[in-house]
């Protein structure tokens, strides 16, 4: 019996070791690695979604809980738990993962909505900018806008860059500033050229043209009417139109001339004071007008007195209807320019003293008024 004792103890110890190993194999880590990695992934997603900026309260709460749980993880990373024991740390990690996932889902949805808004806004403003560029070019009014179109172009490039970087909120901000810039341009054009859409002003221009045509009929001679909006010169004889030619105006010709060097083309009733043939002018041929007339001088004195015209600016003169100087002279400096063959025909059919009436427009549906209307519609749409 005594001889069997060591064998019994050996068996007992063997079974005890097996049971102990089995029990140890059934234990679990206090800090499951997959739970930690899941919360870490949520944290990265929230950072990428800029949760601290777009949902600061939610992110602050998540970050506070995550920092607290990290401390517990470090303290308990070497501990083990029996499977049947409750694991508060794991439960806290799983709960934080779930709450964080909900925030990620919400912010992802909001981000996609923001991306869509930024994309649509860029398209809208670019369309409006294209219309503005085309229409401003059509009525030669770039000088009125100064650097505004350049500023708009830079803002739209910023909007694109922010969009490509995923900064949709900043893209929207740049697009909105571009929109405001376009609104300012529209306001500038409306303020400067609103007279082209003003019925009273158009009626006055129409009366001026009719009086000139009537004078031609009464005196049985020639008269010229220049329509700036449509860029058309019409020669009348005995009150009837005999020829009509397209013209170019000054580089700022759509405006009404106010002083020397403004590049604008005057509006009013004038006469041909002198005819200059080849060798007498730098141009092909020229019909010199008696600008400035009494009305031009009166307006000039008033605007200079009120500070609307700089003190150093003279009233100017030498306004002509002329041909092209050379191939490099693509635009006149305030006069009315015709192609040389047409200038030759006009030159032969008028005399010194022929009345020349220059008006802004002769009908309400003129090109400038239509441009203003179109820009106004696009402003309302965006």
Shape: rod-shaped
The major beta sheet can be summarized as: 8 strands, mixed
* DSSP E strands, number: 10
Overall SS class:
alpha+beta
Number of domains: 2
What would CATH call the class of the largest domain?
Mainly Beta
Please describe what this structure looks like.
With 382 residues, the chain is of the alpha+beta class. The chain has 2 domains: 2-110, no CATH class; 200-363, L,D-transpeptidase catalytic domain-like, CATH 2.40.440. Helix content is 57%, strand content 12%. The strands form 2 sheets. Strands 5-4-3-10-6-7-8-9 form an 8-stranded mixed sheet. Strand 4 and strand 5 (240-246) form a beta hairpin. Helix 2 runs parallel beside helix 5 (88-138), helix 5 (88-138) runs parallel beside helix 8 (168-193) and helix 5 (88-138) runs antiparallel to helix 12. The longest helix is centred in the first third of the chain and has 51 residues, at 88-138. It is rod-shaped, with a radius of gyration of 41 Å. It starts with a helix and ends with a helix. Mean pLDDT is 86; it is low at 11-26.
Entry keywords:
two-stranded antiparallel ribbon; L,D-transpeptidase catalytic domain-like; 12% strand; alpha+beta; eight-stranded mixed sheet; 57% helix; 382 residues
């Amino acid at each position: 019996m005594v001889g069997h004792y060591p064998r019994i103890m050996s068996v007992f110890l063997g079974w005890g070791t097996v049971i102990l190993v089995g029990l140890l194999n059934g234990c679990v880590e206090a800090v499951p690695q997959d739970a930690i990695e899941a919360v870490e992934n949520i944290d990265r997603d929230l950072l990428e979604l800029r949760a601290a900026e777009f949902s600061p309260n939610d992110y602050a709460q998540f970050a506070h809980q995550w920092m607290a749980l990290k401390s517990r993880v470090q303290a308990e990373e070497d501990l083990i738990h029996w499977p049947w024991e409750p694991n508060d740390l794991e439960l806290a990690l799983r709960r934080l993962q779930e709450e964080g996932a909900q925030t990620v889902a919400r912010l992802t949805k909001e981000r996609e909505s923001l991306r869509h808004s930024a994309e649509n806004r860029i398209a809208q403003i670019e369309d409006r900018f294209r219309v503005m560029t085309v229409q401003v070019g059509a009525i030669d009014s770039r000088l009125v806008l100064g650097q505004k179109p350049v500023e708009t172009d830079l803002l739209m490039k910023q909007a694109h860059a922010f969009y490509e970087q995923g900064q949709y909120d900043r893209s929207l901000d740049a697009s909105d500033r571009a929109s405001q810039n376009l609104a300012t341009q529209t306001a500038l054009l409306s303020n400067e050229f609103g007279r082209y859409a003003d019925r009273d002003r158009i009626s006055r221009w129409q009366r001026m043209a009719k009086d000139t045509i009537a004078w031609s009929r009464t005196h049985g001679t020639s008269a010229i009417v220049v329509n700036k909006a449509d860029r058309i010169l019409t020669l009348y004889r005995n009150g009837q139109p005999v020829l009509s030619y397209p013209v170019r105006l000054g580089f700022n010709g759509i405006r009404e001339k106010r002083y020397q060097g403004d590049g604008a083309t005057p509006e009013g009733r004038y006469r041909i004071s002198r005819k200059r043939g080849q060798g007498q002018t730098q141009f092909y041929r020229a019909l010199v007008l008696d600008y400035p007339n009494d009305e031009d001088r009166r307006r000039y004195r008033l605007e200079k007195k009120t500070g609307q015209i700089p003190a150093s600016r003279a009233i100017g003169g030498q306004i002509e209807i002329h041909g092209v100087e050379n191939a490099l002279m693509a635009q006149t400096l305030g006069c009315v320019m015709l192609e040389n063959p047409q200038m030759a025909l006009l030159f032969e059919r008028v005399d010194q003293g022929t009345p020349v009436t220059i008006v802004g427009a002769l009908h309400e549906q003129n090109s400038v008024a239509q441009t203003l209307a179109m820009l106004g519609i696009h402003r309302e749409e965006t």
